[in-house]
Amino acid sequence: MADSSTALNSAAQYSTALSSTALMTDMYEYTMLDAALRDGTAQRQCVFEVFTRHLPEGRRYGVVAGTGRILDALERFRLGDGELKFLSDRGIVGRKTIDWLEHFRFSGSIIGYREGEMFFPNSPILQVEGTFGECTLLETLILSILNYDSAVASAASRMVTSAKNRPCMDMGGRRTNEWAAVAASRAAIIGGFQGTANLLAAQCYDLKAIGTAAHCFTLVHDSERDAFQAQIDALGKNTTLLVDTYNIEEAVKTAVEVAGPELGGVRIDSGDLASLAQRVRNQLDALGAKNTKITVTNDLDEYALAALQSAPVDSYGVGTMLVTGSGAPTCAMVYKLAERENSAGVMQPVAKKSKDKASVPGRKLAYRSYEYSLADCEHVISGSEASLADYQMPESWKDLLVSYVDHGSIDAHYQGHDAIMNAQAYRAQALAELPITAQSLMKGDPAIPTEVTVL
Fold first, then answer.
1. For residues 382 and 361, is the Cβ–Cβ distance under 8 A?
2. Chain mean pLDDT for the chain
3. Edge-first strand listing for the sheet containing 240-242
4. Which of 185, 249, 369, 407 could bridge to 201 as Cys pair (CB 3.0-4.6 Å)?
5. pLDDT > 70: what percent of the chain?
6. Which residues form the Nicotinate phosphoribosyltransferase N-terminal domain (predicted)?
7. Confidence of residue 18 (pLDDT cuts 50, 70, 90)
8. Residue 267 confidence (pLDDT)
C-alpha cells in the first residue's frame, strides 16, 4: 500500500493523470507487452477486432458511438515521466519496456463502422492493425469507450423513435460519473438528442446547452410569483418555468400573469404526465398562451415516451435511463486477435475456440445488402489479406467500413462537432433503411440477420 507521500493526493496530480490516456487500461496489457518485448513477439503484425456476440436481450439493433472519442484519446496516448515512473516503481514492467514506452506513438491503422451506423451480432465494429505491442495496449481504452457510448446512443435512438420527432434533451449528468456524463451527452446527440444540460459537454463538442431553474429556485423565494418574476427578469419571457413545485394549475395561471402570452414554456416534472400535459395545454390555450411549449421530465425511458405520444407535449428531458443505456449499460463488445504474423513472417488467421466464446478467424470486410431499398442482411466476409483483396462486392451492397487511422495518421474528419452532427444524421438515415420492425419496442430478434462467410 502506497503511503501519503507516494499516492496521488492532489487535484493537480489527478488533472495531470487525465491529460494522458496511457494508463486508462488494465495492468495485464502492460505485463503482456513486457513479456512480448522479452520474447520478440511484440513486433509481430496483428489485426484485432471489436465485435459483440449478441445484442442486449430483445434489442433489434445497436448504434455505434464513441469512435471519435477513441481518436481523441489516441492523440493523448503518451507516457510522460509520471506514467513511466509509476510503471517502473510498481514493478509492472522492466527497463526494456520503459525505454520502448518512452517514445511510444501508435503507428498502426484502424478501420471500422462509422459513428451512427447500426450494428448487429458479429459486426466487425472496429479493426485495429499494427504490431502486437501497440495494439494490445489499446484494448481497455477502446472497449470502455465503445461499450458505454454505443449503449447510450442505442438507448437514445430508441427514445427518439418513441418521441416521434419531438425533441429529446439530455439531463442525465447527475445520474452517472462526472466524466461519463460528458461522454453520454456526446453519444446522446449521435443517437438523435437535440441538446444537453451538461456544460462541459456543450463546451467540448459545441453542443446546444439547455436548462433554466430547479425547484429550489422556487422554494428559496417568498412566493412562486416572485420566483417566476426573477427568472423572467434574468432570462426573458422566452424562458421555461417549472410549474409543479406546489399546485400546477395555480402555477400556470401565475406564469402567464407574470410573463404574458409570450411565455416560452412550462416544465412538468412529476405526476401523471400525459393527463397533466393535456390539462396544462388546455389551460394555456384558455389563457391566450397558445404558443407556450410544454416540456416534461421525470424518469423517462423509451416506453414512457411511447405512452406519451398522444399527449400535447413539445419536448422531453431524459436523465437516468439515458445515461444507463435504458437497462443495457454495456454492449458486451470484446477485443479479439483475429490475425497475426507467425514465426515465419506470414500473416495467419487465428481464433478462440472456447465454448460459447468462439471467434471468427481473419480480418473482416462488412457489407449490407438491400431489397426494395430496405436492408435485408449484414454480410461479414472473413479471410486473409490476400483473399479479401480479391473479393468482389456485389454492386447493390453497401460497404460499411471507413478508415479512421492510416499508419498512425488520424483522419480529423471523424473528430469534433461536425463529426457528431454527421453521425446524428447518418443514424437517422441508417435506421430508416432497416425494416420497420427495428423500431418496435417489443422484444425480438435483430432487425436483420448477420451472415458470416470465411474465405
1. yes
2. 94
3. 195-196, 168-170, 315-318, 293-296, 265-268, 240-242
4. 185
5. 96
6. 23-147
7. low
8. 98
Task: Using the structure block, give the residue that is written with the C-alpha cell 509509476.
Answer: 86
Q: Is residue 162 part of a domain?
A: no
Do the Cβ atoms of 190 and 63 come closer than 8 Å? Answer: yes
* Neighbouring-strand partners of residue 112: 126, 402
**Residue 228 in grid coordinates:** 417566476
User: Number of structural domains, the chain?
Assistant: 2
Dist CA 47 CA 364 (whole Å): 10
DSSP state of 108: S
Q: Are residues 49 and 120 in the same domain?
A: yes
Question: Residue 144: left (phi > 0), alpha (psi -120 to 50), or beta?
Answer: alpha
pLDDT one-digit tens code per residue, 58-115:
999 999 999 999 999 999 999 999 999 999 999 999 999 999 999 999 999 999 999 9
Q: Do 348 and 268 fall within a single domain?
A: no
Q: Would you state the torsion angle of the CA atoms of residues 402, 407, 409, 410, taken in this order, to the nearest 10 degrees?
A: 30
Q: What is the CATH number for 263?
A: 3.20.20.70
Based on the fold, state whether residues 297 and 414 are members of the same structural domain. no
In 3D space, the residue among 403, 415, 412 whose CA is nearest the CA of residue 129 turns out to be: 403
Same domain? 134 vs 231:
no
Q: Position of cell 496489457?
A: 29
Judge if 287 and 353 occupy the same domain: no
pLDDT score recorded for residue 11: 43
State pLDDT tens for residues 276-301: 999 999 999 999 999 999 999 999 99
Question: Which has the closest alpha carbon to 93: 102, 81, 84?
Answer: 84
Three-state DSSP state, 392: coil
What residue numbers bound the domain in which 138 lies? 19-152+328-360+401-435
Contacts of 28 (CB under 8 A, 6+ apart): none
Can you tell me the mean pLDDT for 372-401? 94
- The grid coordinates of residue 336 equal 479479439
Query: Which amino acid, one-letter code, is at 367?
Result: Y
Helix (H) or strand (E) holding 34: helix 27-39
Q: What is the average pLDDT across 23-49?
A: 97
Q: Is 303 helix (H, G, I), strand (E, B) or coil?
A: helix
Q: Of 312, 339, 374, which residue constitutes the final position of a domain?
A: 312
What does the alpha-carbon distance between residue 273 and residue 264 come to, in Å, rounded to a whole number? 19
Residues 304 and 342 placed together within one structural domain of the fold:
no
Q: Give the model's pLDDT for residue 349.
A: 92
CB neighbours of residue 295 within 10 Å: 22
Does residue 197 form part of some domain? no
Question: Helices 67-75 and 416-432 sit at what angle, rounded to 10 degrees?
Answer: 160
This prediction has a pTM of 0.94
Residue 100 belongs to domain with CATH number: 3.20.140.10
